[in-house]
Amino acid sequence: MSVYEIGLRLQGKSVLVVGGGSIAGRRVPRLLAAGARVLLVAPEATTTLSDYAAAGEIQWERREWRSGDGDDAWFVLAATDAPEVNAAVAAEAEARRTWCVRADDAAASDAWTLAHTEFDGVSVAVSASGDPRRAASIRDSIAAGLRTGDIDAPRSRTTRPAAGSFKGRVALVGAGPGDADLITLRGLELLRQAEVVVSDRLAPQELLDMLGEDVEIVDAAKLPYGRHTTQEQINAVMVERALEGKFVVRLKGGDGFVFGRGAEELDACLEAGVPVEVVPGLSSSIAGPAAAGVPVTERGVVHDFTVATGHVPPGPQSKVNWAALGAGHGTIVLLMAVKNRAAIAEALIAGGRAPETPVRIVENATTKNQTVRNCALADLGVTEAHHPSVIVIGDVAGRAREL
Ligand code: SAH
Questions:
Q1: Residue whose CA lies nearest to ligand 1 atom number 24
Q2: Distance in Å, CA 285 to ligand 1 centroid
C-alpha cells in the first residue's frame, strides 16, 4: 500500500469530522492548528471537543451524520465507532471527489493521516504501509533525534540584514532546574537557532555542549569585575549583539522570572527596542521539591505555597514577612537560603510555625548529584546543606515519599 504524500494547507477551508470520540479528539487540535474550519457532526463528544465547541473554535452539530453534511468540505474525517456509518461517509465523500480518512479501516480509506511531528519549523510525516504503530515509533525516533541534535537540521542562516533594518532579537529562555532534558521544547528550539548564548552557572551545561562551533557563548559567571555590575554587563552584551543583528538566547536556570532577574533583562531589551520573547522554564522552586517526591500543594493537606528567597537574613533588610509566613499553614519553599537557614528557621518558629514541622532539603535537584535530606524545622540550622538547594518546609515534606 503506497501513498502519495502531500501537505494540505487548510487555512479557512471547511473540514467535516464525523464522530466525537477519542480519535476525533486527537485529530481536531491539529486541524485547528492548520487553520481549518471544523464542522463536527456527532450526537456525543468528548469533553475536549465540546470545550472547543463551547469556545466557538469548532461548529458542532449534535446529531447523527446525514447525507449532505460534507457538501462544503474539502476534506472529511470519518471517525465514528460504527463501521457502516464511516463507510457511508467515505462513500459519499468519494462520490463528491473529496478526500476522506476512515479512521477505522486503513485498507478501505482513500487518505491516511500520517504520524507527524514538528520541530523548529520542520514538519515530518511518516507512513509505514498502513501500519500506524510502526509509523508512530519511527516518528518518535525522528522527533527524539531532532530534539537531541542526532539528526542534523541545519538552517541556512539569513545573510546580512539590509541597511536600516535588523533581524536581531533576544529570547529569555528558562532552562529548567538542572537536568538538560527539562528545558521546554520551545526553549530547545530557540537554543538551536541561537547565534549568541548568554548563560550562567545554574543553566545545565550539557545544553551548551550541543551548540555549534560558530555560536558565541558568553558565560555570565566569567564576566570581568569592573565599573559595571555583572547584571549591567549581561544586559549590555545581550542588547549589543541583538543590535548587531544576531539572535541572542539568554539561558537561565529554572524560570527566568523567579529570582532570576528576568525582569531587568526584559526591560533592557524593551528600552533598546530589541524584539524579545520570554520562554518560561520549570522553576526549581516547584520542580526541585517534586524531584524529591514533595508536592508543594496536596488536596486536603495544604492549599497554598510561598516561594521566598533567603539571601537576606530575617531583619530590617529583608522584604519577606517571616513572622507572617511562620503564622500561616502553607508550604514554604526557600531558594538561596543555605547560608541563612538557621536564622530563617528561628524566625518562622517565632512566628508560630511548629518546631517539629517537617523540612526536606533538595540539593542539586534533578541532576545526577541530587541529594535529599530531611529534618525538623528546629534542626534546619544544624542540618547539612550546600548550594544549590531548595528547602521545602511544611506537612507535604513529611509524607515520607521516597522516590
Ligand atoms: N530562576 C531560578 C532560581 C534562581 S535563584 C529558578 O526558577 O529555579 C538560585 C537558587 O535556586 C539557588 O540558590 C537554589 O536555591 C535554587 N536552585 C536552582 N537550581 C537548583 C537545583 N538544581 N537544585 C536545588 N536548588 C536549585
A1: 389
A2: 7
Buried b / exposed e along 303-338 (16+ C-beta atoms within 10 A): eebbbbbbeebbeeebebebeebbebebbbbbbbbb
- CATH code of the domain in which 355 resides: 3.30.950.10
Residues 294, 266 share a domain = no
Residue with the nearest Cα to atom 2 of ligand 1? 254
Ligand 1 atom closest to Cα of 260? 1
User: Mutation test of ligand 1: which of 278, 390, 392 has the most ligand atoms closer than 8 Å to its C-beta?
Assistant: 390
pLDDT digits (tens, 9 = 90+) for 185-243: 999 989 988 999 999 888 898 899 888 889 999 988 777 777 777 889 999 999 999 99
**Per-residue confidence band for 157, with pLDDT thresholds at 50, 70 and 90:** low
pTM strictly above 0.70: yes
In which domain, by residue range, is 339 found? 285-398
C-alpha 314/C-alpha 235 separation (Å) is 30
Ligand 1 in contact with 178 (CB < 6 A)?
Answer: yes
> 161 falls in which pLDDT band (50, 70, 90)?
very low
Amino acid 144: pLDDT: 87
